[in-house]
């Protein structure tokens, strides 16, 4: 069975602080995908990143960066110089490509990030 | 533009009154699914469909039905809604390379 744990229920920071959202996953599969989604107050799910289990390179996109460490089954997300617009719920998710599960995402519980001005 | 649409976006109903939430995608994806989102639980899969006329239960199927008569549409049916089905519902459409979510339907059952 697959499982995703986001141990931080809520994080509160002041604007311009860096913040890291933790994600730990469990799977028996050797091939899988990891995702991060952002859910702003308006409610829609905004795709941020998808990472293949064979690609352990860290990725940076503007103020966002992701640290994938297979050895610790973690896929952490860092926002540098946070802004008020980053306030949202962030979800980490895991999927298994192939078979009947290839479209199914297993989500973590979500981390509520509040950035204060 | 690739998109998944859901209707209605908001719905308040009473216990036992049958309702249907529609979902449509324009990407010709074979795989579609429904999730519900509840505080502290993240999103959980309700039902999924691998193709037309092929559907199966996800993690939390009780109280829901689905159908897949056409590739683009995947309606979620609550035959007798109950208050514990008050939730935010998302339809998703995916290929082996991409996944799209609809805008969500906020359902309240009183």
Helix percentage of chain A: under 10%
Main sheet of chain B?
7 strands, mixed
Which structural class is indicated by helix and strand composition of chain A?
mainly beta
Proportion of beta-strand residues of chain A:
over 45%
Largest interface: A-B, 24 and 24 residues
Shape of chain B: globular
The largest sheet of chain A, given as strand count, sense and whether it forms a barrel, is: 6 strands, mixed
Task: Compute the CA-based radius of gyration of chain A.
Answer: 14 Å
* Oligomeric state of this protein: heterodimer
Count of helical stretches of chain A: 0
Please compute the radius of gyration of chain B using only Cα atoms.
13 Å
Amino- and carboxy-terminal Cα gap of chain A: 41 Å
Helical coverage of chain B, percent range: under 10%
User: How are helices and strands ordered from N to C of chain B?
Assistant: EEEEEEEEEEE
What does the average pLDDT of chain B come to?
A: 94
Shape of chain A from CA axes?
globular
Question: What portion of the residues of chain B fall into strands of 2 or more residues?
Answer: over 45%
Task: Please report the total strand number of chain A as a whole number.
Answer: 12
The tally of strands of chain B reads 11
Q: Calculate the terminal CA-CA distance of chain B, rounded to whole Å.
A: 37 Å
């Amino acid at each position: 069975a697959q499982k995703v744990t986001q141990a931080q229920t809520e994080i509160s920071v002041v604007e311009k602080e860096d913040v890291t959202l933790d994600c730990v996953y469990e799977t028996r599969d050797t091939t899988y995908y990891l995702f991060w989604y952002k859910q702003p107050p308006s409610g829609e799910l905004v795709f941020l990143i998808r990472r293949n289990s064979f690609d352990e390179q860290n990725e940076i996109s503007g103020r966002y960066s992701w640290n994938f460490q297979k050895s610790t089954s973690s896929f952490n997300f860092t926002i540098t110089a946070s802004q008020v617009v980053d306030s949202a719920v962030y979800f980490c998710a895991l999927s298994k490509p192939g078979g009947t599960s290839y479209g199914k995402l297993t989500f973590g519980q979500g981390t509520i990030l509040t950035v204060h001005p | 533009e690739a998109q998944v649409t859901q209707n209605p976006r908001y719905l308040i109903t009473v216990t036992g009154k049958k309702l249907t939430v529609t979902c449509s995608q324009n990407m010709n994806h074979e795989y579609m699914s429904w999730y519900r989102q509840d505080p502290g639980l993240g999103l959980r899969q309700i039902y999924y469909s691998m193709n037309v006329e092929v559907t199966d239960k996800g993690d939390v199927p009780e109280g829901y039905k689905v159908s897949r008569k056409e590739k683009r549409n995947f309606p979620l049916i609550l035959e007798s809604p109950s208050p514990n089905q008050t939730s935010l519902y998302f339809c998703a459409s995916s290929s082996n390379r991409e996944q799209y979510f609809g805008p969500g339907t906020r359902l309240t059952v009183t």
